[in-house]
Amino acid sequence: MSPKPADAPLFTVLRLSTAMRKELANVAEFTDQQLSHYLDEALPSDLMAAVENALRSDRPLRERLIAIAERREAGVHTLGDIWRRNRLSCPTREELGSFILDTLDDDVSDYVRFHLETIGCRICEANLADLRQQQATNEEASQTRRQRFFQTSAGLLKRHR
Ligand SMILES: [Zn+2]
Fold first, then answer.
1. Number of domains present in the structure of the chain
2. How far, in Å, is the centroid of ligand 1 from the Cα of 105?
3. Which of 20, 27, 56, 146 allows an S-S link to 16, with CB 3.0 to 4.6 Å?
């Protein structure tokens, strides 16, 4: 069995402080509390970046973050909380999907952009990243199908010559 890739190179690349390295080493899995703080943008910036980075490639983590955000009912302390509590302000997943495909009406599309860029809603951001990855996966699959189709057709043409 090949050895597990060492953690050291990643830490070197990230140029993290010793304390941060220790913290990161402890949280190969981020805790719910850390994710909750992430939603509040209340983590140290290195850790914010680490979570953000992990969210890009880690679908289960995104799902956890969304679940945590949805579970948080208590205490409205920040503007972000108010936005999150009032989930009506969040576009639906369908709307986010249409937003990616650029098939929304202009005013709806403007609102989604405002919601993402100005409000910086992290729930929708996570949802959007998830949808984008799904779309990329679907595209890959259909490309493979298309390729297989052309290969088959080419084979048939040759045979008929
Ligand atoms: Zn939102």
1. 1
2. 18
3. 20
